[in-house]
Each structure stands twice: as structure tokens, then as C-alpha cells.
Design a protein that fits this description.
774 residues; alpha+beta; eight-stranded mixed β-sheet; seven-stranded mixed β-sheet; 33 strands; 28% strand
Length: 774
């Protein structure tokens, strides 16, 4: 039985809740219903008739003006309409009850839903080509959820001036605070914050008598006052942990920023799918090294690029980025280089050779015509879009103490991406009848052998281990909150253990335990191997558990002890081999890969049996693409894909390829070149016209079109790739969904409806300069 289906009957019964006729009224109203259903109705009426002490604060939830209204000694912040709804609810319930509280919130949510639907209808009627831009690295701007919480604080500016203020919302990474009066302050300055009220309520050393350093990032006058936005700039883990625990303990009492989790969930799921379907190969470089390539990031799609660059069973990519070639490429980067790379292999006298050349090298040597005419007759002729830019890795999220920053990340100076381009892009015609002497191309042959091993890390690895493990049996004593247990080590690493209990006992996953190393303590005089904190990660049959170190002190002790133990006894400990090469923790690899997502991405879902572009994502630094796809938009958070849809392009670029892939049951590998002409009419209004290769009568007419609009600087040429994908996994966002479902079930359902319908990704690469300049 769903009590929500009986709201009108319940409202009829509420006035009789405290009367002697209540039970007989229930029998009359719900005549014929089962006793169990009547019992549920009684329980629901009892719940909503219970007096409520929760304050309704709409200041951060609505855009309409709010004011203070007091009922039963409780001051609420309501709009005029919400106050009328609360007064009506109090009259119905005979007081301020849980039902009255919920009625007002439902009323506000209904108004917001109606407003959203009206806005969406207007937007849809105006332009169906506009989609929301989901920034795949938006978490860099707001790295933690906020809780709306008002508390008195004292702030000190760099000039020593002290102000009294109140918090508006708090998070582990920042604050929004309200000042009593508007004053202009210097952005970027450090501000010291003393949490005066919190420090009195919580006698915690992390906050008592502490001044926490923040940086002022924004200040603005809003409807309800003058606010400062601050980012945490202090390295105080204890304070961060205190705020984290405080929010977790009070989020049921104060309003949590559920929209943060909503945006983060969509971002995470789409980013995960994009990294899985990414055709570009990210390559991380150290320009100061004689062997510049540090590592590359592989997925199931871009691994084909790595295969294309293998010759004689050797990885040939290090020679594309040799010390001398990289120096030349960097001389063209201002600050970012986008160019074309050509390659092919040929076989002579039973030996295979690979040749590669960049656009700049061929132009400088005047050998482009020869290289292309000779190379594209080969079966393995390849063309790539290469980007190169400076890059410094910066960790954004907070990592566990065992997920240490990889040393190799500190050496990164530049990031390159290599994207395969298989469309026919050659625009210029060469009038030379003779190709030239092929021997002139010998200078582009890769002749060296790779020196050492170039790491290739998997973005989605099967191997989850981070370090070496060693088999070793040794007695331990294990202590939980309510039991002392005995067991033995099966294997160990510097940060983890695999153990087996002598007597099988259920240990809760993620629970904290302490271990005394009984046997190992006997051989150690330097380290105290007692009360070492571990956390239970997972379990296996027969009382076997996998543990991870749980505190910095414990980690330092065991890391030093186990490292010394293995180093002094190299033949005594048997290393358990890894299934694959050891690599950094996956979340760090994904973080580094974000900067490689410089293309425009459009996400395709199936609605009513037809594919439709639902979302899009264009990085802020992709200015040419952002400008093109922001055409006609009212907001920077929107994209307009009119360049892909006019001239019935979507039928040819999206609907037909997906339909053909379904009927032929073959892998879809669909690429096209799109020529976009931006036209300004007599009224100074711009319009867009898009064409494919087949829209031109001949190669010559296409060249004439390109030359004409190139001179007018009105031409943009895009490479289009359509890739089918599996629906994004909800497991990736399970933690966010758990929070959302607790506070806003409709948002949780909305995410599932939006995400699970996505089945393809469109990847757009701007090739304008490379084609017109080549």
C-alpha cells in the first residue's frame, strides 16, 4: 500500500486525530480496506501529526525574496506564498507538525518543478540544438559539498583589520561568509578565520583557539546581504577532518547542497565513459630528459594507436618524441601546438621499417608531396592529429595516505595527445607530375632501438595492487572494539596485510582494528610493532581478510620496518608477482588524463527510438570549438550543435550510421570531415552552413569553396568521429547516488534516466589550421 495515493482521505481524517471518534472515522473512510492497510494509515497520520521543531529556511533554495515569519516560537525564512501555505497547513494540522513542515517543502518543490518545466518547454520550443555543457573537470572549481550552516566567526584581513561575520555555508575546502556591511576587499588575499561559536560548542584542538588561513576568491552583493567566498589554504588535516565529521554528523539537521552531488555524479559518470571511449593517446613528457617520454595512458580504444607504432616488435613512439624532435616541436608551441603527423611502414629485404614526419618537418624539407604520395599507397598509411602543451600535474582530490603521489609525475613538463585521423583531408593539389626520389625519405626512418622500457599505464586496469607483496607466515594478535583475536599473516606489503584468523570471526568491512605483530616484534628492537592500525578492506572464505594501513603513524612504522626486513633478507621473502606492470593508483591516472580531453564531446542517447544529442562537454581552453558551439546560446553553460545538425547533417552523421551498425551487427567506426561556413548577412547577423565531402560536385568545387571562404576567414573544418559505448555505469557514482537519494529522490531518478540512455559519443577535433595551413 502506498499512503501517498490516499492523501485526500488522510487530510479528511487529520482534524479527528485526537478525537474519540478517530478509529470509527478510519473505518468509515477506508471501508473495505484490510486491517493492515488501516494500520499503515494510522501510522502515517500519527507521524505527520507529530509536533515539529525543524526550521524552514528558503534563503538558499529559492530566488524569490524571503522574510522572517515566527510560528510557535520558531522563526522561519519564507517567501510570501510559502508563508500562506504554512499558515494553511498549521490550520489543517492544528499546530506546527511534521506534516505541516513537509507540506510547505512539497509546495516549494512543486513551484520549482513547474518553473523548470516551463523553462525547458520554452527552451525546447526555441532551439532543440541547445544542450547543457557538462564540464568534465568542474570539480576543480568546487571540490567538496557545502552544508548551509550559520555560525558566528571572526575574520582577520592581511592589513590586520578584524571583522565579525557569520558563515552562510561550509565545506572541507571553503566557506561562504556574510559580512554585516558591504566593503571592497582585495581579491586573492589571505584571510584568517576564527570559528568563535564552534570552538565554544566543540572543545576540539583542531578548532579551539585556531586561526585557519583562507584565500578570498570572490565577493558580491546578493539579495540577502554581502558575501565573501573563501578557499581553504591551510595544511591542517585535523581541521579538515573536524569539518568533515561535523558535516556528516549534522547533514540531517541542516540543508546539504544536494545539487553539488547531482552535478558531480553526472560529471563523474560522463568523464568515466569518455575516458573509456577516448580515441586520443595521452603521452606525458619530460622536455629536460634525453628520453622525453615518461609514460602513456592506454584504454581499449586508443591501444590501436600503440599497435600502429610497433615495428619489428619495438615501440616506435619514443622516436617521434626524441630529444631533438621534441625541441623542434616545442619551438612551434605558442603556447600550444596542434599539427599533423604522417607515418607508414615499408618492407625491404625481409626487414620492416617505420617512417614518420610532422607537418613542420615536411614543410621545412619541402618533402610533403613526396612523403604523402609515396606513403599513402601503403596499406598501413596513417595520419594523426598531434597536440603539445606544457603541463604540470596538480592533485585535486584528497588521497588516502597509501595512494602516494608517483615520483614520475613530478618530472612531467609537457602533455601530448595523438589522435588517428582516417578521413581524406588533403585540400591542396600539387601540380608536380613526378613524385620525386623516394631515397630522400630515408631521413624519416626510425633506425634506433628503444633504450629501456617506456611505461604504458592502463586507465582501467585489471590489476588493482599498488606495490609488491611477499608471502610470509607469522603470528599476530588482533583487537577489535569488542574482541581480541589470534591469527597469522599470509602475505604483506608496506601498506597492507592478508591475514587468516585462527577462529573464523566476522569483521565488518571498513572497520578499524589494531594488530600486534607477536613474532616480528621479537626480531625488532628499533620499531614498536604493537597497536598498528589497519582497516578491513575485504574478506575471503575461511576467515581470510585483506587489510590496509589506517593511520600515518602506522604507515610510517610498517613501511620502514618491512622495507628494512626485505632489504636485509632478499632471499628469504618470496615476492608474489603482479599480473601486469605496477602503475600509479587509477584515480591519479584519471586526474592526469583530464587535461587530454581537449576535443568537443557530444553524448548521444536514444529517446523514442531515435538518437538524440543529450549533453555536451567542451573544455574551457578549447576556445575555437567553444566559440563555434556557443553560437546563439544565452549562457556559457550551454552548447549549440547547429553546426552538426543543419543541412540534415544529423540524419547522415548520427541516425543512419547507428541504424546501419544495428542492422549489420558490425563494429561502428564512423569518421567524416565537416566544412563549416559562417555567413554574416546585411543585418550583421551570423548563420552557419555545414557540408560533408559528398555535398560537393567534385574535388575541384570543394577546393574552390575552401579557398573562397578561407580568404574571408569564415571557414572552420572539423573532424567528426562517432563511437558507440555501453551505458555509463552507476557503480562509479554509487556514493553520490546514496547521498542524493536520501535528500532528493527525484534527482536520483533523473540521473538514472539521463545516464542509462546514453549509448554513443561524438568526438569533434578542430582541424582548421592543420588543413588550411598545410
Amino acid at each position: 500500500m502506498n499512503v501517498k495515493d490516499y492523501q485526500s482521505q488522510i487530510e479528511t481524517l487529520i482534524p479527528f486525530y485526537n478525537s474519540a471518534d478517530f478509529n470509527s472515522m478510519i473505518d468509515k473512510v477506508f471501508f473495505g480496506e484490510s486491517n493492515s492497510d488501516k494500520f499503515l494509515i494510522k501510522m502515517e497520520i500519527s507521524r505527520i501529526a507529530t509536533p515539529c521543531t525543524r526550521i524552514i529556511d528558503l534563503r538558499e533554495k529559492v530566488i524569490d525574496k524571503t522574510a522572517q515569519y515566527t510560528y510557535f516560537n520558531l522563526t522561519h525564512y519564507l517567501t510570501t506564498a510559502a508563508d500562506k501555505e504554512l499558515a494553511a497547513a498549521i490550520k489543517l494540522y492544528g499546530g506546527y507538525t511534521i506534516g505541516a513542515y513537509e507540506q510547505v517543502l512539497d509546495y516549494v518543490q512543486k513551484l520549482k518543478q513547474q518553473s523548470t518545466e516551463a523553462t525547458q518547454k520554452i527552451t525546447t520550443d526555441i532551439n532543440q540544438n541547445i544542450t547543457e555543457n557538462i564540464q568534465l573537470n568542474n570539480h576543480r572549481k568546487q571540490t567538496a559539498a557545502r552544508m548551509f550552516f550559520v555560525s558566528k566567526i571572526e575574520i582577520t584581513f592581511e592589513d590586520g583589520v578584524v571583522y565579525q561575520a557569520t558563515t552562510s555555508n561550509i565545506s572541507i575546502s571553503g566557506l561562504k561568509i556574510k559580512l554585516l556591511e558591504q566593503r571592497s576587499h582585495l581579491d586573492g588575499q589571505f584571510i584568517q578565520v576564527s570559528f568563535t561559536t564552534l570552538s565554544k560548542e566543540y572543545k576540539d584542538k583542531a578548532i579551539t583557539d585556531q586561526k585557519i588561513n583562507y584565500r578570498l576568491v570572490k565577493q558580491q552583493q546578493e539579495k540577502t546581504g554581502f558575501y565573501l567566498y573563501l578557499n581553504l589554504e591551510d595544511d591542517k588535516p585535523e581541521f579538515v577532518q573536524f569539518i568533515k565529521s561535523f558535516i556528516k554528523a549534522n547533514q540531517h539537521k541542516y540543508k546539504l547542497d544536494v545539487l553539488y552531488y547531482f552535478r558531480l555524479a553526472r560529471e563523474k559518470s560522463l568523464k568515466n565513459s569518455t575516458l573509456m571511449a577516448m580515441n586520443s593517446l595521452p603521452i606525458y613528457l619530460n622536455a629536460n630528459s634525453n628520453k622525453p617520454i615518461l609514460f602513456m595512458l592506454r584504454n581499449a580504444v586508443n591501444k590501436d594507436i600503440l599497435n600502429d607504432w610497433r615495428c619489428e616488435n619495438t615501440n616506435q613512439l619514443p622516436f617521434l618524441f626524441s630529444e631533438s624532435r621534441l625541441a623542434k616541436l616545442l619551438s612551434f608551441a605558442n603556447p600550444k601546438l596542434m599539427t599533423t603527423v604522417y607515418s607508414f611502414t615499408y618492407i625491404t629485404e625481409g626487414e620492416e621499417f617505420l617512417l614518420s614526419a610532422t607537418e613542420e618537418e615536411l614543410q621545412q624539407d619541402n618533402l610533403k608531396h613526396l612523403f604523402i604520395e609515396y606513403g599513402r599507397t601503403k596499406a598501413n598509411w596513417r595520419c594523426y592529429h598531434l597536440t603539445l602543451q606544457s603541463y604540470t600535474y596538480q592533485a585535486i582530490k584528497s588521497y588516502q595516505l597509501t595512494d602516494i603521489r608517483p615520483q614520475i609525475f613530478n618530472d612531467i613538463t609537457h602533455l601530448a595527445t595523438l589522435t588517428s585521423i582516417s578521413t581524406k583531408e588533403i585540400i591542396k593539389i600539387d601540380t608536380r607530375s613526378e613524385k620525386g626520389n623516394p631515397n630522400l625519405l630515408n631521413k624519416y626512418v626510425h633506425r634506433e632501438k628503444e633504450a629501456g622500457f617506456t611505461p604504458i599505464y592502463d586507465l582501467f586496469p585489471e590489476e588493482l595492487r599498488k606495490e609488491e607483496r611477499y608471502s610470509y607466515s607469522s603470528s599476530i594478535a588482533l583487537n577489535t572494539n569488542n574482541a581480541a583475536l589470534a591469527g597469522k599473516i599470509i602475505d604483506f606489503s608496506n601498506s597492507g596485510l592478508k591475514i587468516q584468523l585462527d577462529t573464523p570471526k566476522l569483521l565488518t568491512r571498513r572497520s578499524l582494528i589494531t594488530i600486534d605483530f607477536l613474532d616480528l616484534q621479537k626480531i625488532s628492537t628499533q620499531f614498536i610493532l604493537k597497536n598498528i592500525e589497519y582497516r578491513v578492506i575485504s574478506s575471503s572464505p575461511k576467515g581470510v581478510y585483506h587489510l590496509q594501513i589506517a593511520s600515518r603513524e602506522s604507515y610510517m612504522t610498517m613501511h620502514q620496518f618491512f622495507s628494512a626486513l626485505v632489504a636485509k633478507n632478499p632471499t628469504h621473502f618470496k615476492e608474489i608477482p603482479l599480473k601486469s606492470h605496477k602503475q600509479p593508483v587509477t584515480t591519479r591516472l584519471h586526474e592526469a588524463a583530464e587535461s587530454a580531453l581537449s576535443q568537443a564531446f557530444f553524448y548521444v542517447s536514444t529517446q523514442n527510438g531515435r538518437p538524440k544529442i543529450s549533453f555536451s562537454s567542451i573544455a574551457e581552453d578549447s576556445k575555437a570549438l567553444k566559440q563555434l558551439f556557443n553560437f546563439g546560446c544565452q549562457s556559457e553553460n550551454q552548447n549549440n550543435h547547429i553546426a552538426l545538425s543543419n543541412n540534415r547533417l544529423l540524419d547522415r552523421l548520427l541516425t543512419a550510421p547507428l541504424r546501419a551498425a544495428c542492422t549489420q551487427q558490425e563494429p561502428l567506426n564512423f569518421e567524416r570531415t565537416i566544412y563549416i561556413n559562417k555567413i554574416q548577412n546585411d543585418s550583421n547577423k551570423w548563420s552557419i552552413e555545414s557540408y560533408l565531402d559528398e555535398d560537393f560536385e567534385s574535388q575541384q568545387s570543394k577546393r574552390d569553396f575552401v579557398i573562397k571562404y578561407k580568404k574571408l576567414n569564415q571557414l572552420q573544418i572539423l573532424h567528426y568521429r562517432l563511437t558507440p559505448i555501453e551505458a555509463p555505469s552507476l557503480k562509479v557514482i554509487s556514493s553520490e547516488l546514496n547521498v542524493i537519494s536520501c535528500y532528493a529522490m527525484h534527482l536520483s531518478k533523473r540521473i538514472e534516466d539521463e545516464i542509462l540512455n546514453i549509448n554513443a559519443i561524438i568526438e569533434i577535433t578542430d582541424r582548421t589550421e592543420q588543413i588550411l595551413g598545410g
